[in-house]
Here is the input.
Amino acid sequence: MARFRSEFLRILDERGFIYQCTDPEGLDELFLRERVTAYVGYDCTADSLHVGHLLTIMMLRWLQRTGHRPVALVGGGTTKVGDPSGKDETRRLLSEEEIERNKRGILESLSRFLDFSEGGALLVDNATWLDELRYIPFLREYGRHLTVNRMLGFESVRQRLEREQPLTFLEFNYMVMQAYDFLELARRHGCRLQMGGSDQWGNIVCGIELAHKKDRIRLFGLTCPLLTTASGAKMGKTVKGAVWLDPQKLSPFEYWQFWRNTEDADVGRFLRLFTELPLAEIARLERLEGAEINEAKKVLAFEATRLAHGEAAARRAAEAARALFEGGGGDVAAVPVLEVSRSELVRGIPVVELFTRAGLTRSNGEARRLIRGGGARLDGLRIGDERLLLRPEHFDGRSEIQLSAGRKRHARVRVVEG
RNA sequence: GGAGGGGUGGCCGAGCGGUUAAAGGCACCAGACUGUAAAUCUGGCGGCGUCAGCCUACGCAGGUUCGAAUCCUGCCCCCUCCA
Here is the structure.
């Protein structure tokens, strides 16, 4: 497969990152010729990124590893407008402070994967230029280069119109804003390539066309496939919601577990996309069959966790999993802990409440149902009574007990004096 | 501006005065089977509650009624057709 000659594109191609590319040959040449600056845009609506963002993060990472310059753009400007695509309930507008906090969170998530130190990756906020825009001058200068005819042809727009779903002028302008972002990055930072999910294709192309008409510069676009699991579900959900990259929001142990529970059919693909193992090694792992494929899943979990949370955390997660799932007392240090005071324990703590406090269930009612359904365990023994109170005798001299919701989700409860 | 249709739980979508915490599907959780997989089958799936109950919910605000998601009034939003 001599499709690409440049290292970056070859890697992306071999690993399955490429869905569409505006001009593969031209881009390949560009990568052979110079140090390329490329960007990916991230929404600013949450304070952390999640696995749904991981594909593009990995692309930026490979970009940096192969000697080029990644730019992460956060949508501080566009977030102020509020994304209207979420149908009813006009979305709550975020305050400046919230946006600021979210930006910091996003940077923190990204910092695990990219080197933002001097001369490395760049973080930019489109508020920097979008805030300054004035309507009439903008329309006169840029609006004349964008035809509605052209924009109506884009898949995202066409689909809406065909299904007779409303498409507001505001949404329509998102494409324009993003097109302008690309141009602005090209001017400010010499950015030549925008990458994103396949749903971003129209927006990316729009930016390329704008830049060509306005500044006579040639930009490139590349999208990655929309990721679903082999059984067709969207990736990256757990009871707790999204699979966050921020360890505060989802512990490394739970992150490890997420990857460990990958479906058989996805293992090879995920290893290529979400780890940096050599392809030969992945091919070997992929060939494992039956129960042996679990080895491959552990490698996937370890490597993915290592990237997001560091090697030490990945080791602890792996060890805790060994202790929990394969018997033989390993170290369960990575399993999330809930602390309770001795005085509270002496009074007796409703076990349903503990499940909720430990984050294993979302409400006491859910914990009750879990117990009724036979999925709740205390130190491995099924809890039969939903009214059970946790008391000092359950600890039997130890400082910790273990709660489990189903086979896979565990938490420790530790007594502290007081 | 005019006429009609509509806003139901995370999503889709029934219900159109009581027996409706609201059919059905998807998603999700648990149990069984396994390999911490998939498929399948079973159960669950608003909150609080030591279980007797209480509270909140069908766009928003009022009203009619013993009783409202269901009827009435006003408001907000969406869709279709006409101008």
Residues 169-189 of chain A form the longest helix (21 residues). The longest strand of chain A covers residues 409-416.
